[in-house]
Amino acid sequence: MPGSQRNFATKDSFLRVTEEAGMARSAAEKLWRELEARYSEPHRCYHNLDHLDQMLGVFSRLETGDRRGIELAIWFHDVIYDPLSGENEAASAEYFVQKFRDSCPWERIETVRQLILATDHEKSVRESREADLLRDIDLSILAAEEGSYEVYRRAIRKEYAAVPEAAFRKGRIALLEQLLSGTLFRSPEFADFEARGRANLRRELALWKES
Prior knowledge:
Layout lengths: L10 H10 L4 H15 L9 H12 L6 H10 L11 H13 L5 H12 L11 H11 L6 H14 L5 H16 L13 H17 L1
């Protein structure tokens, strides 16, 4: 949110990665202002710049082959976000394509587009190591310390404030059960996240079923 202290989701880091992708400085500056405004929209209680900061912090501790592709995908994966839409990932991927089509090789654009699409956790299948890493980075909040997870849980509910409590409870229970039905994290680098993530989800699931 505006005014938050961030270590990774900063203007300088954004300008670096976009210029490395071939975008001119002036265009990158303009795009930063647009992206900052989008991630600061008032309905974003969780899917905001603080979310990107957390993801980029996790990413900074990993080693992977296509660092530039994953980093770009992190920045743009939630640039379009409507809690009631099922097309956010597709819209965000298209936004990225439109912004980089004149400055970035098509192979790079397509790689990042596919990575953004892979963050649709209800539809995504295993596609590549980079897609699995990005998905796990996006879901890493699930393995946060209990207090941080509670902040995340409440923020998600605020984003869905327009949804009546009974309907939200039903949908959230279904999502939690879906996540718990398989392995949460796909990459070896996230093996240590699994136990805490499952514990957090089970605790939240119990809360919803008891309410």
